[in-house]
Amino acid sequence: MTTQTIDLRPATGTISRFLTNPLVDKGFAMAAIVPWIYPIAHHFSHFGVNIPDVVYVVQTGLLAGTMIFRNTPVRVTTNPIFWALAFVATYWGFIGIILENQGMRVAPVWLLDGITILTLAGIFWARISLGRNIGFVPAQREIVTHGMYKYIRHPIYAVVFVSIVGAILERWSLRNAIVLGAGILLFGVKSFVEEGLLKKDSKYAAYMQKVRYRFIPGVF
Fold it and tell me: Which of 122, 127, 166, 173 could cross-link to 159 by cystine, CB 3.0-4.6 Å?
């Protein structure tokens, strides 16, 4: 079995019913992917095409497709603090671009290239594994138990952490380490918030017992 059926009782409360409306969910999804699409058009119109940009386009296309056609959630958090956390964590990379300085490379090119290849492979595997159950705000959709989710509960975050470590090594400075490290902290906190919602479903609680590690198999 690759996914598990979750508790399908409808969400209660006016706000909850609004957020779990399929049209509302699709609207939020389309709005959420705009920040990733804009840099593509802007960059290509000014600098042309190169391999990293093509890879970015493919990743963004995968993100956009899974977001727009994602499964409608059964439950979505109505806590405004959790919505704010999701927003800041999701778009922290864009904020970081403004706050970072040039820094200096402190790792060999072969290591940085290896991290890049690892993160590219990991993000594709993780997103394909998650499929149409993607969302930025803590919400309950189908429980995914196949692919990378057989080994860790938050594979996309784990891959993001690896990419952040690579970025710190590529552009080392104390300022950059703090700015980029904040991204790891934000996603770490977000994982606890999400599971606080999801573990209310007995099947997800059972999944947590079966797959005991959040980010690193056999470690944490």
Answer: 122
pTM of the model: 0.87
List of residues 6+ apart from 80 with CB closer than 8 A: none
Comparison of pLDDT for 206 and 96, the residue scoring more: 206
Cβ atoms of residues 4 and 207 within 8 Å: yes
Domain ranges of the chain: 3-210
What is the CATH class of 3-210? mainly alpha
